[in-house]
Each structure stands twice: as C-alpha cells, then as structure tokens.
Design a protein that fits this description.
Transferase(Phosphotransferase), domain 1, Hepatocyte Growth Factor, 2 domains, 5-stranded antiparallel β-sheet, two-stranded antiparallel sheet, FAM69_kinase_dom, non-membrane spanning protein tyrosine kinase activity
C-alpha cells in the first residue's frame, strides 16, 4: 500500500502541470500516510529545474552506490533526470525495505522484477505504476491462486459459530500481535495457509477487511469453545476434529 501510493505520487510529480518535479530532500520522514495515501509533508525542497547540459557526459545521475548515464536532449536538458532521481530514491528508501516481504509467494517474483527494474532504472515511472497495478489486480482478484490443489475439502465448516478470541500462536506478517491474523482472498486460500502451519487446527474468516477489500482470517492452534455468531463460519481440520467433537 505504501509503495503503490508513493508510485502514484511520483507519477503525478513527473506529469504535473508545472513540469517534472524532483524532491531534493527525499527521506522517509518527509512523507506521512493520510487516509491510506502517502502525502509529502514539505515541498520547500521541490524543484522543476532540470540539469542543463551540452552533451551526454554532462548528464550522470550520481548516488552513493550507483551512477546512471542519461541523455542530453536537443533542448539542452538531461532527459528525465527529475523523474529518475525520484524513482531511484523510492527504490532505495522504500522498495528495498517493503517489497521483498509479506506478499503471497506467487506474487513475489513480480515484486522482485519491480525491485530490480527500478534499482537499475530500467523502468520509468509509467512502467513502474503499470507493474504495481498489475500486481494489485492479481492480488485483489485472486488470479495468483490458479492451479493450486483444493484443500478446503479437508475441513469441516460450522456455520453460525465463532471461537473465543484470545492469545494464540504467532505468525508473520500477522495483523494482530496476539495471534495469527492474515489477509486471504477466500476460505480456500485460508485452508492452504492453515495446512502450511503445523500449529494450525482451525480458522475463521472474520468480518474485518484490508485496504484492498480482502477479508482477514484468524488461525488457531486449538479447538476452543464455540460461540453462536450468525455471521461467522468456523473451519476445523477433519484430522483435528475426529475424536474431539461429536
């Protein structure tokens, strides 16, 4: 969410009515999340000036660990230097820390492609935004789950009940520090996650939703007392329920 919001912001800056805008003091502390969107807190160090040049050799974009040769345009400006400076700063301050983690395994290769392409400045802001939107579409639609074995059949579903909330086993990246609360596309994906965790014996698809509209599933290690709840369904592993419940 943070990286996508940042890319949308940089897309606007690259195509603003004032021209391509560069953030000269590009640091995480210059940004804040407001209603799920990343905002710049200080525009004092923003500029529309692009480096003047006479030849391509005048257009090297230097960072502490990398340098990138750019083209000198016929207008005597280093082509795309503001856009590329913003994008590489996004890569080194945000993407490298946030993209490799917490995505479903099937989507990680797509995020690695974005990471590598922005780290080498092979992608401009247009290509980067398109790549992020493709990943978001796959994530929200559940298309990344295709061609996976169906595991929900290994679970008993008890409609109209939920389990007692309490501290349980931890998992990463959980939305709750008390237990294992993860975003899922469907009960089928939740069953696959439960199967992959040795502690998991049951799960509930909660009424909570993430920013993408995906529900949160609560995974539990033991069959605690059930509470009537017309809006809930408890899914229990058949192997766990045998002999423990009638």
């Amino acid at each position: 969410q943070i990286c996508l919001s940042l890319v949308k912001l940089l897309f606007y800056l690259a195509h603003s009515p004032l021209g391509s805008i560069v953030l000269l003091d590009f640091q995480p502390r210059q940004f804040v999340m407001v209603d799920g969107n990343l905002k710049v807190t200080d525009m004092d160090d923003a500029s529309t000036e692009e480096l003047s040049c006479k030849e391509d050799n005048d257009c090297t974009l230097d960072f502490p660990t990398k340098s990138f040769p750019l083209k000198c345009s016929v207008a005597g400006k280093c082509e795309g230097i503001n856009e590329k400076k913003n994008l590489f700063n996004a890569y080194r301050y945000f993407f490298t820390y946030l993209l490799p983690h917490s995505a479903p395994p099937a989507l990680r290769p797509f995020l690695s492609d974005i990471l590598n392409a922005t780290g080498d400045l092979r992608y401009g802001i247009n290509e980067t935004l398109k790549a992020f939107e493709t990943v978001l579409h796959l994530y929200k639609s559940g298309l990344y789950l295709q061609k996976r074995p169906l595991l929900l059949k290994d679970y008993i579903s008890l409609k109209g009940f939920r389990t007692v909330e309490g501290e349980d086993y931890k998992c990463w990246p959980s939305y709750s520090h008390l237990g294992c609360l993860l975003s899922v596309h469907s009960a089928e994906e939740a069953a696959a996650i439960c199967n992959s965790q040795s502690q998991c014996q049951s799960f509930i698809i909660t009424q909570q939703r993430t920013w993408t509209g995906r529900p949160l599933a609560s995974f539990q290690s033991s069959l605690t007392d059930l509470i009537p709840d017309a809006n809930s369904v408890v899914y229990i592993k058949r192997s766990a329920s045998s002999g423990e419940r009638p």
